[in-house]
Amino acid sequence: MPSKPKLGQNFLNDTQAIERIATSLGDLSGRTVVEIGPGAGAITGALAARAAHVLAIELDHDLAAYLRDEFPQSDEARVTVINQDVLSFDFESASATAGERLRVAGNLPYGITSQIVLKLAASYKALDRAVLMVQREVADRITATPGSRDYGLLSVTAQMYGPAEKLFTLPPSAFTPPPDVHSTVFRWRFEPRFAELGVEEASFFRFVRQAFAQKRKTLANNLRAAGFAPQTIVAALDCAHVPAQVRSEALSIEIFTSLWHSLHAGLDAVNSDTSS
Predict the structure, then answer these.
(1) HSE toward the beta carbon, residue 74, CA cutoff 13 A
(2) 1, 62, 155, 181 - which has most CB atoms within 10 Å?
(3) Torsion, CA 252, CA 254, CA 259, CA 262, rounded to 10
(4) Are the CB atoms for 21 and 39 separated by under 8 Å?
(5) Does residue 56 contact residue 67 with C-beta atoms inside 8 Å?
(6) pLDDT score of 2 more than 70
(7) Nearest CA-CA partner of 201 in 161, 162, 240, 164
């Protein structure tokens, strides 16, 4: 089946990698798996051999028709081909129908990788874990640790929804046609930390975006640019035992949540004084 470069189609042809992706999802007996971008069905077959049901979400109409020929559709079929944009797919409904949290696999199109990652994060209540193939540099950012060059907004965002770990990297020759970049497979477990750390999801991410707004600037300068009062910033940094000249890429998720709490306590105090 010929690929369509404009859709970011690069079909995996490495049989060992296909098996590793399927096994990295864990025991699939009796489970439902969502596959994002099945393409010509190489990973689909490996998943169908292990899982009770595979929901193959394919945007390309021609590929969806091809997959339906490869995996004939019926009420008893182990593979259901859905010709749809994954960004509009209802993971919550699929989870409710399956009666369980879903597992996800996919060779993600490079052009919309971040959008798909954010879509999965927003659907975390319906998901158990995902094994995803992305451009190596994106996997580096998602799994990065504080203080590393790749650590940033995407790292904090993804890891607030659960731990992410790199599994293996593949060269361009593992795909048809070969892309211009290496690809990395990573596993992401959906274990959100909002309740554990006592933060409100939308407000916390707004703060993190402000903290990383200008990577060359210190955290304090970014927060001043976001409208926080200098005395509030100084008090929050002191409370979290954070040096005044620190940059955001040096801070762990735990320290970010501590700062969020301190900043909100400072704002609440200011508002209280204003209203009294």
Answers:
(1) 5
(2) 155
(3) -170
(4) no
(5) yes
(6) no
(7) 161
Give the mean pLDDT of 223-241: 94
User: Other C-beta atoms within 10 Å of 27: how many?
Assistant: 9
Enter the DSSP assignment of 148: S
Do residue 251 and residue 139 come from a single domain? no
Structural domain containing residue 129 = 5-192
Q: How much is the pLDDT for 267?
A: 52
> Do 203 and 260 touch, CB atoms closer than 8 A?
yes
Q: Based on the domain organization, do 30 and 101 belong to the same domain?
A: yes
Q: Which residues pair with 166 in a beta bridge?
A: 186
Verify that 65 and 97 share a domain, yes or no: yes
Residue where a domain stops, chosen among 139, 167, 192 = 192
pLDDT for 217 beyond 50: yes
CA distance 108 to 183: 10
Spatial contact of 12 and 3, defined as CB atoms under 8 Å apart:
no
Q: Measured between alpha carbons, how far is 271 from 276 in angstroms, rounded to an integer?
A: 9
At residue 184, the 3 state secondary structure works out as strand
- Burial class from Cβ neighbours inside 10 Å (0-12, 13-18, 19+) for residue 155 reads buried
Average pLDDT, the chain: 92
| 216, 156: one domain | no
Question: How many domains would you assign to the chain?
Answer: 2
Q: Are residues 174 and 220 in the same domain?
A: no
The string over 92-113, giving b where at least 16 C-beta atoms fall within 10 Å of a residue's C-beta and e elsewhere, is: eebbeebeebbbbbbbbbeebb
Indicate whether 269 pLDDT > 80. no
Same domain, residue pair 10 and 138: yes
